[in-house]
């Protein structure tokens, strides 16, 4: 198995994706929201790339059937039901609902890698289940940090490095790493005992603190708390019925 | 001063470059060759992007006036005078000559950032003079690792991290770093006492070893050995007559 990580979130060459698993990571905060929302009973999540598309899509469903969630420029969106803090996504508000989600980086990332053989949502929350799933699928892997407005994101890459470390430690198979994967693993090891410290160093972490979301940082650093691996297929994110439900 | 580093060598947005200094780094081995060749008395270096262009350009000069140097797919090029090992570039062979250089990553990188306000060649060889020059120019800085066939390069990024560390330690000015710059600095600190170890970990380092260039690795890791900062302007790399010769 080869593991690569794309350090800058431009669209990868689709020809490189057709037989690979892709893990999309947006720690602060889209994939943390996605995994949290799934754990609280959301039926499915539709990631869309603009606020306008989110409103348009919501109109296609009966009232009360869907929730609108996400952010624009790190701010809550007027007319939306929920923001982009995973702490908002509790069963009382979301259970049984369909979620239409739009965010600056993460929801776009799923569409950028949509040519992947299987596309998984990852964060610190599901790192154990994710590593297990990657080992079971036994495909070459591209980790895709969603980045920070087109730029490298420290916290997303550290999570990618943690996934690499967990896979290589769990796996007995021969695993090859690219220079970028080695970089991510080194970053992870630097911050393994202080993930919050990385959030305080990162541009996006600092921005969230300045906007009053400091509590989200500690929340998003919860490791291996949710044993679910959401899968993006045909435009929708769902939890497969069994771990091997993917073709 | 803001310092950014572009971890993947796609062409940057030219609009971001017009008032910035850009440092091109290709440790293994183009910028190491450039700085070494300049220290041995090469009059100027023309970086070209293809072997064909190199031969075509050489025909424009009288015989004996220019040297052809570089590599293609890490191999010496038939008909060229010199390869891409800095150890070949000694005064006896190169003094007073003009060098036409083509390589897989480094010579292309200069052209990708040609919209920069000033474009400097960097490697471990000239790290001290380079840091000094960046502080004197006092412009925002983009460090541009030439990468490994379009991908992230561990050794180039570590050298970028060393430049960041030397600038921030030398400089009394307020310096801001991006997430990518923090990443590069962390990588540098990881390998500060073992640069060769990074070469042995990197894909390109391993390739050079397999091709018989292991001695180049130790050679390219010489730190602060050459106090020259070559500048790329109007398609040509030269040493300016004075440190403040740039407009």
Descriptive tags:
three-stranded parallel β-sheet, homodimer, 37% helix, disordered C terminus, 247 residues, 17% strand, seven-stranded mixed β-sheet, globular, alpha/beta, 10 helices
Itemize the secondary structure elements and their pairings:
Two copies of one chain form a homodimer.
Chain A: E1 2-5, E2 21-25, H1 30-39, E3 44-47, H2 51-58, E4 66-70, H3 91-94, E5 98-102, H4 106-112, E6 118-122, H5 127-137, E7 141-145, H6 154-170, E8 176-177, H7 179-191, H8 195-201, H9 203-210, H10 214-220, E9 231-233, E10 236-238
Helix pairs in contact in A: 5-6, 6-7, 8-9, 9-10
Structure, described:
The structure is a homodimer of 247-residue chains. With 247 residues, chain A is an alpha/beta fold. Helices cover 37% and strands 17% of the residues of chain A. Chain A is built from 10 helices and 10 strands. In chain A, the strands form 2 sheets. In chain A, strands 8-1-7-2-6-9-10 form a 7-stranded mixed beta sheet, with helices on both faces. In chain A, strands 3-5-4 form a 3-stranded parallel beta sheet, with helices on both faces. In chain A, helix 3 links the parallel strand 4 (66-70) and strand 5 (98-102). The first copy, chain A, starts with a strand and ends in a 9-residue tail after the last strand. In chain A, 53% of the residues are buried. Mean pLDDT of chain A is 95; it is low at 243-247. Chain A binds chain B through residues 6-8, 10, 148, 151-154, 157, 178-180, 182-183, 186-187, 190, 201-204, and chain B through 6-8, 10, 148, 151-154, 157, 178-180, 182-183, 186-187, 190, 201-204.
């Amino acid at each position: 198995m080869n593991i690569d990580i794309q350090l800058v979130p431009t669209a990868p060459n689709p020809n490189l994706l057709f037989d690979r698993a892709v893990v999309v990571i947006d720690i602060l905060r889209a994939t943390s929201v996605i995994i949290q929302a799934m754990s609280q009973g959301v039926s499915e999540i539709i990631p869309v790339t603009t606020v306008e598309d989110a409103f348009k899509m919501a109109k296609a469903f009966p009232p009360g059937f869907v929730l609108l969630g996400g952010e624009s420029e790190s701010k809550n969106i007027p007319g939306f039901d929920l923001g982009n803090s995973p702490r908002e996504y509790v069963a009382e508000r979301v259970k049984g609902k369909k979620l239409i989600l739009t965010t600056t980086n993460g929801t776009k990332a799923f569409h950028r890698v949509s040519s992947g053989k299987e596309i998984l949502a990852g964060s610190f929350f599901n790192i154990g289940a994710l590593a297990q799933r990657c080992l079971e699928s036994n495909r070459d892997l591209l980790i895709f940090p969603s980045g920070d407005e087109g730029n490298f994101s420290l916290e997303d890459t550290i999570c990618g490095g943690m996934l690499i470390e967990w896979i290589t430690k769990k796996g007995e198979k021969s695993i090859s790493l690219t220079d970028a994967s080695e970089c991510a693993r080194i970053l992870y090891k630097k911050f393994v005992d202080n993930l919050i410290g990385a959030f305080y160093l990162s541009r996006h972490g600092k921005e969230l603190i300045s906007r009053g979301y400091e509590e989200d940082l500690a929340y998003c650093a919860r490791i291996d708390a949710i044993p679910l691996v959401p899968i993006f297929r045909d435009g929708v994110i769902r939890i497969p019925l069994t771990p091997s439900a993917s073709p």
